[in-house]
Amino acid sequence: MAQTPLSPVTRSDDRGKLYISLDLSYRLCVIILEGTMAKSLAAGLQVKAKFFRGLADMSRLTILEALRGGRKNVSEVVAETGFSQPSVSVHLDCLWCCGLVDREIGRRFTHYWIKSRKVTRLLEMAEGVLEDVSDRVESCSRYEPSKEAQSRTK
User: Fold this and answer.
1) Phi, psi for residue 11 in degrees, rounded to 5
2) What is the CA angle 39-44-48, rounded to 5?
3) pLDDT score recorded for residue 107
4) What is the DSSP string of the chain?
5) Residues of the chain above pLDDT 90, percent
6) Nearest Cα residue to 101 out of 88, 89, 116
7) pLDDT tens-place string over residues 57-103
8) Which residues are 18's β-sheet partners?
9) Where are the domains of the chain?
10) What distance in Å separates the CA atoms of residue 143 and residue 64, rounded to the nearest whole number?
11) Can you tell me the mean pLDDT for 135-148?
12) Domain 57-151, CATH among 3.40.50.720, 1.10.10.10, 1.20.120.790, 3.40.50.12780
């Protein structure tokens, strides 16, 4: 039985790519839909890559680890991390702008804390993954931070 334009056949592959088959005269529609989904996937991957680049910064990761202990003001984060106050302030602002931490601005101090339990769980999951692969990650020369990034750590 022939398909009509109103009866598309849909299927997805094991990677979640959606295929929509219509009558041959509607082939262009299939190409446009696949292109739109690919652009959407690429945009999502760009945001995810940007997210992980932010976490890859040693200073921001150290500050997040300090905040795992709970709500802290900038001076407390400085004392715990050993970073300079301006550096901590810049990184906390970045983490706040990205939505990873929240803050309360008081009269004398601004207090910061990890905004979502999901962020804490991500840090915990990273520790779990590293239990199995830390030796390989440590010996991997492709993951070395740049000299510029190392000099900005403190």
Assistant:
1) -155, 160
2) 145
3) 93
4) ----TT--EEEE-TT--EEEE--GGGHHHHHHHHHHHHHHHHHHHHHHHHHHHHHH-HHHHHHHHHHTT--EEHHHHHHHH---HHHHHHHHHHHHHTTSEEEEE-SS-EEEEES-HHHHHHHHHHHHHHHHHHHHHHH-GGGPPPHHHHHT--
5) 53
6) 116
7) 999 999 999 999 999 999 999 999 999 999 999 999 999 999 999 99
8) 12
9) 9-53, 57-151
10) 20
11) 79
12) 1.10.10.10
Mean per-residue pLDDT over the chain, rounded: 81
**Tens digits of per-residue pLDDT, 21-71?**
544 444 444 445 556 666 787 788 888 989 998 899 999 999 999 999 999
Q: Which residues of 57-95 are buried (b: 16+ CB within 10 A; e: fewer)?
A: bebbebbbebbeeeebbbebbbebbebeeebbeebbebb
Token reading at 135: 């030796």
Q: How far apart are CA 152 and CA 145, in angstroms?
A: 11
